[in-house]
Specification:
The complex is a heterodimer of chains A (about 250) and B (about 325). By secondary structure, chain A is an alpha/beta fold. Chain A has helices at about 45-50, 75-80, 95-105, 120-135, 150-165, 185-190, 205-210, 230-235, 235-245, 245-254; strands at about 5-15, 15-25, 30-35, 60-65, 65, 80-85, 170, 200, 215-220, 225-230. The chains are: A alpha/beta (about 250), B mainly alpha (about 325).
Chain lengths: ~250, ~325
């Protein structure tokens, strides 16, 4: 299958520190990929390079065969490359319902309309209600985001990404900060995502990674040291060294 | 689907729904307008000026209150509307008041586009400095182009025609006042529709988190620039109203002082709400007028003390604090 998302030889330095070292990666529609690695391995930098929040020193990012390396973040989103944030980024004075309605209207290119209230648009409201219900947020739909618990904000963060109906979804630690009692909701939400959507997830929760991912990529000191099946990752000597050995060792094997 | 909890907790109250629909606002504008007409019949010129400045303060609220842009140069948009309407009347013989208002609207929108293009290139403090630079440039341009603007003498002899050939602009300013109140009501309805629309919601999002806006695939800059043009149109209408009612346009309509005072009125009333903008204007200008008459030497001291009190004890402004108090009262179990 042709890749929907492809990264070629991506490089990024902060001063003398190489944070992304010749990373290449491709995903087909329907991929469930987990990107893991020790702290400081460059996972979030990788996401920022791919989404356009940082400019790479070298390399290319392609989306459905189109080179998006020079595009602004918003342009990439409109082409189907959507991310969620490790630390929740929401509008604190707006309600969950407003968030999702706005995301849906934006996806449909109607967020610039200067008349009418979103609640008068039946299809938008139906889709909003379905998403709210799916993530257990329906009862909170009229509360301001700053009035709801952080775990619920995390769920809304995922719902926002879902509302944009992406082709490629980058989830930066979707379960971080979600209470144990609600991680099942996050997992159910991830399971319910369309099967042809390519998902790349960063997480430290290995249980979640092994349940979710069909493929694992390990990043250490900015370099891809493993790309393969989840069942093989713990057997790999370089991965063991990266996690158990010192960073210096991980760097020298790179 | 989950059954919703107690309606009173989740559904907006009746008062809030009426406020959202703008009916309360229009009613309040008409009521306040009528009261002003009856209570201060000899001071209609002042009241008309309050209406004109209220339009300026509303226009600042659009970019500052709703979108989070800090500006001390917004009188440029007001002055552009005033000079636009005045020049149209004096140099081009466009003396129909509605046509003059339309020219003011367009001139204001154009000034909004120009200053938006400049100001929106920066953020935070640099943005504020750019806005000050813009107002000084507009001021200086109007000063130098004295052939068109009358320079520091002002542009005088603006003679608007009678309204539909029926209502003369009389010495007491009755026609101008009624026209101003009608304009304010119309602008308020349109702005209420705007701020409730998807675009208004997007603008509030821009104020709160531009990175999230980009992550949704929207462009903050495009939203802000569109809002600046709309804001310019509103300020331009205010400027035109001022030109029509006073029949003269001076450089003070393009001044840093007016920009700063209008921002103060907005903060006094409360940012991010159309009601706050209008309440702040009325309170500040009536206060200013009363105090300066009572004590011409120390009135500014009192205004300063009032502002400090509001910022310290009611940081959300008069309207914002009243709403917060009402909310708290409503939520307290009976």
């Amino acid at each position: 299958m042709t890749p929907v998302f492809e990264v070629q030889n991506l490089n990024k330095k902060f001063g003398g520190l190489v944070v992304t070292n010749d990373v290449s990666l491709s995903m087909a529609p329907g991929d469930r990929l987990a990107l893991i690695g020790p702290n400081g391995a460059g996972k979030t930098t990788f996401i920022n390079l791919v989404t356009g929040n940082l400019a790479p020193d070298a390399g290319h990012v392609q989306l459905s065969g189109e080179d998006v390396t020079r595009m602004r973040p918003a342009q990439r989103v409109r082409r189907g490359l959507v991310r969620s944030f490790q630390v929740t980024r929401l509008f604190h004075d707006m309600t969950p319902e407003e968030h999702l309605a706005l995301a849906i209207l934006q996806r449909e290119g109607r967020s610039g309309q200067m008349f009418g209230h979103y609640s008068g648009r039946v299809r938008v409201m139906d889709e909003t209600a379905a998403l709210l219900d799916q993530l257990g947020l329906f009862d909170l739909r009229h509360l301001k985001v700053r009035e709801i618990a952080y775990g619920q904000q995390r769920l809304l963060e995922i719902a926002m990404a879902m509302a944009l109906k992406p082709k490629v979804l980058l989830l930066d630690e979707p379960a971080a900060g979600v209470p144990q009692s609600e991680t099942a909701l996050v997992e159910a939400a991830l399971d319910s995502l369309p099967s042809d959507l390519a998902i790349l997830m960063i997480d430290h929760d290995m249980d979640l990674v092994f349940r979710f991912a069909k493929r694992v990529v390990v990043l250490a000191a900015g370099t891809v040291i493993f790309d393969g099946l989840p069942e093989d990752v713990t057997k790999d000597s370089r991965v063991r060294e990266a996690y158990l050995g010192s960073y210096a060792d991980a760097g020298s094997t790179a | 689907m989950a059954v919703s909890m107690d309606q009173s907790l989740t559904a907006p109250s009746l008062v809030k729904r009426l406020a959202d629909s703008g009916l309360i606002g229009v009613f309040a504008i008409v009521l306040a307008g009528a009261m002003g007409y009856l209570l201060m019949p000899n001071n209609l010129a002042l009241l008309t000026q309050i209406v004109a400045v209220a339009l300026l303060v509303l226009s600042i609220d659009l970019v500052t209150g709703y979108c989070g842009v800090a500006t001390l140069g917004h009188a440029a948009l007001f002055g552009a509307g005033a000079y636009g309407a005045g020049i149209a009347a004096v140099h081009f013989g466009i003396t129909d008041p509605v046509a003059m208002t339309a020219v003011g609207l367009l001139a204001g929108a154009l000034a909004g586009l120009v200053s938006g293009l400049v100001i929106l290139r920066a953020h935070g403090l640099a943005q504020l400095v750019l806005s000050i630079a813009v107002i000084h440039l507009f001021h200086e341009a109007a000063n130098k182009a004295s052939g068109w603007t009358g320079g520091s003498d002002g542009l005088s002899a603006i003679m608007p025609n009678a309204f539909f050939g029926l209502f003369e602009f009389d010495l007491w300013g009755r026609t101008a006042y009624v026209y101003g109140v009608v304009l304010l009501g119309l602008v308020f309805i349109l702005l209420q529709i705007l701020v409730r629309s998807p675009f208004g919601m997007l603008a509030r999002g821009v104020r709160q988190d531009q990175i999230r806006i980009a992550a949704m695939g929207a462009s903050s800059h495009a939203v802000l620039l569109r809002m600046y043009v709309i804001s310019g149109a509103v300020a331009g209408i205010g400027g035109a109203l001022s030109a029509i009612s006073t029949q003269v346009v001076g450089l003070d309509s393009l001044s840093f002082t007016l920009s700063a005072e209008a921002l103060v009125m907005l903060v006094l009333g409360g940012t991010g709400s159309l009601y706050g903008a209008m309440i702040g204007t009325v309170v500040f200008m009536l206060f200013e007028d009363t105090l300066s008459a009572a004590n011409p030497f120390h009135w500014l001291t009192v205004v300063g003390a009032l502002l400090i009190a509001v910022v310290l004890f009611a940081p959300k402004g008069l309207y914002g604090t009243a709403v917060a108090l009402a909310d708290r009262f409503r939520r307290r179990p009976a």
